[in-house]
Amino acid sequence: MTIWAASAAAIGAAPAIAAGSVHRRDRAHVAETGGTASGRPAASGRRRAGALRKPRRAARRDGKARALSGDYAPITANTPQPPYEGPVYVKDAAGQPVPYAAPPAPAALSAATGGSPVGVAAEAKPELLVPGSSAEEINGLAAAPMNAPAAVQEMIWAANEIIGRPYVYGGGHGSFISWGYDCSGTVSYALHGAGLITAPMDSSEMMGWGERGVGRWVTIFANPEHAYMTVAGLRLDTSPVEDPSGLEGPRWRPLRRENRGFVKRHPAGL
What we know:
Strand content: 15-25%
Distance between the termini: 18 Å
CATH architecture of the domain at 80-103 and 116-266: Alpha-Beta Complex
CATH superfamily of the domain at 80-103 and 116-266: endopeptidase domain like (from Nostoc punctiforme)
Radius of gyration: 19 Å
Oligomer: single chain
Helix content: 10-25%
Number of strands: 11
Order of helices and strands: HHEEEEEHHHEEEEEE
Largest sheet: 6 strands, antiparallel
């Protein structure tokens, strides 16, 4: 499903944002890299030792939730997954999967190649597919699993359309069409691509949206200051926390080791 139809002129400036329509800027960049949002030093000694035990308890709770829900999509990982080397398909004009041929490496591009790579810089993103029930990252984009429901596939392909755009505070709130996106604007865009919402939400609204807990295919993580999601085993996030790239903005990233401090929600049935 393609919903990115605005011209460059139409998205040349960020939309006006109504007062109170967005939350405070994500503090995860500070709080999860050793400091705190208030500037106070991190706890130490016995208090810190206790804090180190919490992620393990959280991981056990997450694992139990996945087992109870029949989860197809992990939400945590101790180590990043190795690069995918299996078959990749793309939908042809008739909507049928055909083998996907990767574009030339950026260094090999020239005027003769006719354009940019299919990765994060390309304007028209292919609807990639991989066998099985887990999404895979291919040149910065996500390939949807063939066994996933159509809504999950549409969510992944929609999110691919904004991968590589800049982080913009409030981006994606005045309208789904924006030159850049913030955290909840990114999640909203993906949900809208699957036809699950008709208006953008901020992270506080996401705390009460959908159904409680870990989903089988999709899980949204939200608190008053940040939101991200996992879809079929990949994490869609604007924060570079636990991502070696260190880049902000909408991107597919490695799963976090734990998701402490966030409410877990999921779309009904997913």
